[in-house]
From TrEMBL:
Protein known as: YaiO beta-barrel domain-containing protein
Location of the YaiO beta-barrel domain: 177-349
Leader sequence residues: 1-19
Transmembrane region(s): none
One matching Pfam family: YaiO
Domain of life: Bacteria
UniProt keywords, alphabetically: Repeat, Signal, TPR repeat
InterPro entries xrefs: Beta-barrel_YaiO, TPR-like_helical_dom_sf, Ycf3/AcsC/BcsC/TPR_MFPF
Lineage: Bacteria, Pseudomonadati, Bacteroidota, Flavobacteriia, Flavobacteriales
Length: 411
């Protein structure tokens, strides 16, 4: 039986080879793409692409595809041979420059990748793909100013480019070595307190090779009394995907500020322009208040959406705080309109000292908006307003109105 099967296979083999030989280069290219993309069978895809090139040696798309498949197969020598041959032919196709530069980018040959991209941009100056790839290369090489210029070019061409928007936000804190800022927050209560609150904060940020560090001093007048607080924050980068937030604060004016505060979060830049966070916040007045936080964000065209929760467990129940945020970016990373809606009090808010009295276990509704804009990229302005309807005692509610303005100078 085995002998008979081998004999029949021998008889049919010439017809099979003949059929393959009669396929056009387009047919072979289509089969090669199916093998690569649908079946992940790179060796077969390479053979089919080579057969197609035997029929049509100047078919650029097939050569670019072959170089890509060699790259995916980690056969870098063969991939470079294909791309260098196309370069010698002075090929000007955009896909060629993207494929060739991507090979060098993925293998940490950043200078060579930039050279290839710049040559491609000389033929395709409005190419979003090439400009975005240029931004990624510069970002990976810690050349953040150049990366910001590239993302800005993409967003000038297409403000709705989601990937460029997400990257521009991630690198915005790294493009200036120094930043000094001042904020003022005003709070008015219709029932809960007789006196308005005032908070002024002054900060200095320094960007380093491992991340940004911030020192901030706060002065507050609450309950007609004065208080001060000092805060330190750090945003060290762990990898291209992960970075940390670590913060601590101290005040000797307990009640106006917590005596101590700490916080740590792990952030992740996820695929498809998502981002995530998980961490904790701790406030100490006369005892510790622990809050665990998680958030998920998504960039979509000009928009950024975020949902955050704070969970505060105790012996009797678990208290929850939820905030939804939406931003619409008008230009760069510093220019946007924002909208917030949520329930509960978070430890990040100016009224966090109310947590000492466990008002976070009562019902609070909040809604507000903000507008941030920049002038000459180094002068950053912000204005926001927030409305709270808070149950400050069981079955007793009051209204609170907050206005915050800020200015930051980067250099």
């Amino acid at each position: 039986m085995k002998t008979l099967f081998s004999f029949l296979l021998f008889l049919l083999l010439p017809f099979s080879l003949y059929g393959q030989e009669n396929l056009s280069s387009d047919d072979l290219f289509a089969k090669a793409r199916k093998a690569a993309f649908d079946e992940k069978d790179y060796p077969t895809a390479i053979k089919l692409a080579q057969q197609a090139l035997d029929k049509s040696p100047d078919y650029t798309d097939i050569s670019v595809f072959l170089g890509r498949v060699y790259t995916w197969s980690d056969d870098l020598t063969s991939a470079r041979q294909v791309f260098e041959k196309l370069d010698q032919k002075n090929v000007k196709d955009q896909d060629f420059f993207i494929a060739y530069a991507s090979l060098e980018y993925w293998n940490n040959q950043y200078d060579k990748a930039i050279t290839i991209i710049d040559k491609g941009l000389s033929y395709h100056p409005q190419s979003e793909e090439l400009l975005l790839l240029k931004a990624k290369v510069y970002n990976s090489n810690n050349q953040f100013v150049e990366a910001e210029k590239a993302t800005s070019s993409v967003l000038e061409i297409n403000p709705k480019n989601t990937e460029a928007r997400a990257l521009s936000i991630r690198i915005k804190e790294l493009t200036s070595k120094n930043a000094v800022g001042i904020t003022y927050n005003y709070s008015h209560f219709d029932k809960q307190f007789n006196d308005d609150w005032h908070i002024i904060g002054v900060s200095y940020k320094r960007a380093t090779s491992i991340g940004s560090f911030i020192i901030r001093g706060n002065y507050a007048n609450k309950f007609a009394e004065n208080g001060t607080q000092i805060e330190l924050e750090a945003y060290p980068r762990i990898s291209k995907t992960f970075y940390l937030y670590a913060g601590a604060g101290y005040s000797n004016d307990v009640g106006i500020f917590p005596k101590y505060r700490t916080g740590v979060s792990l952030f992740a830049n996820l695929p498809h322009s998502f981002e995530g966070e998980i961490g904790y916040r701790q406030l100490y007045f006369s005892s510790n208040i622990w809050m665990y936080t998680a958030s998920v964000g998504k960039y979509y065209k000009n928009f950024w959406f975020n949902l955050r929760t704070y969970i505060s467990p105790d012996n009797k129940n678990i208290s929850h705080s939820y905030t939804g945020t939406m931003r619409y970016y008008t230009k760069g990373a510093y220019d946007y309109f924002g909208f917030q809606i949520g329930t509960g009090i978070s430890p990040e808010e100016s009224i966090n000292n109310l947590l000492e009295n466990e008002t976070y276990k009562l019902k609070t509704f909040k809604i507000g908006g903000e507008y941030n804009f920049s002038i000459n990229k180094s002068n950053l302005f912000s204005v926001s307003a927030m409305y709270y309807n808070q149950e400050y005692r069981p079955n007793e509610k009051g209204n609170q109105y907050d206005i915050t303005i800020g200015y930051t100078k980067t250099f």
